[in-house]
Design goal:
The structure is a homodimer of 135-residue chains.
Chain A lengths: L6 E3 L2 H9 L3 E8 L2 E12 L2 E6 L12 E10 L4 E13 L6 H7 L13 E15 L2
Antiparallel strand pairs in A: 1-7, 2-3, 2-5, 3-4, 4-7, 5-6, 6-7
Chain lengths: 135, 135
């Protein structure tokens, strides 16, 4: 569209490269009809974004529910930047013994926030979208 | 809590200072039961976070619905960082003539993404929360 001529879509392969090269994102979930959003440390395993949460946190709503995840980078000097969004379904991996779950949870992921983060949550059925704004 | 001893809450006054000194955040809304999350340029006017959106965008769900907004800053070197979250209700300000709306929409806010961004959305009934993680 001419009116959005400084915005371009980022293809999925490049979305995955960006996800693989970063480590902090924001997770949004719906709890009692309201959106919640929290920064998390994450890993990418194949096409799967996974993060760890503690019991009783706001992210308790995430497992088995719809989830959105976002990373971005902005350049204030040039008013430019990019963002990648993953939409999917939160899946609790903790204790799961299937090959996929054990591959993900074998990855090293130490959240910066101290405390027991016993739950692994992966984003299943991921749909990737990305956009880049250039001046 | 002992298990979260490296995390501290950020008081509301300091949340507002952080919001006033940044300009890009992420908005989360609920559309058809699923969370959406998008980066936006924003302003803070008093205790009101406001941003502009285009017609037909994913943020069409925001006006009059529950909204979450987040800013953060991370320091990879020291595994530390902070985040501020605003939860409230999206309110369309476009065309409104009350004093509060005109004060907000009189502010200069030029989104980096080109194109018509004719809708101003403010977050009403804001609840601020922030947390800081130190090593």
């Amino acid at each position: 569209m001419a009116e959005d001529s400084n915005m371009e879509e980022i293809p999925e392969a490049q979305c995955l490269e960006l996800l693989a090269s970063h480590f902090v994102g924001r997770v949004a979930v719906v709890a009692e009809g309201r959106p919640l959003i929290l920064p998390v440390n994450y890993i990418l395993e194949g096409r799967t974004v996974a993060f760890r949460t503690g019991t009783g946190t706001k992210l308790d709503a995430a497992p088995m529910g719809p989830v959105a995840f976002e990373i971005d980078e902005v350049d204030p000097m040039y008013h430019s930047g990019w963002s990648v969004v993953v939409q999917g379904v939160g899946r609790e991996l903790t204790g799961a013994l299937d090959a996929w779950s054990t591959t993900v949870t074998a990855r090293h992921l130490e959240p910066w926030a101290a405390g027991a983060k016993e739950h692994w949550v992966a984003i299943a059925e991921p749909v990737f979208s990305g956009r880049r704004i250039t001046r």
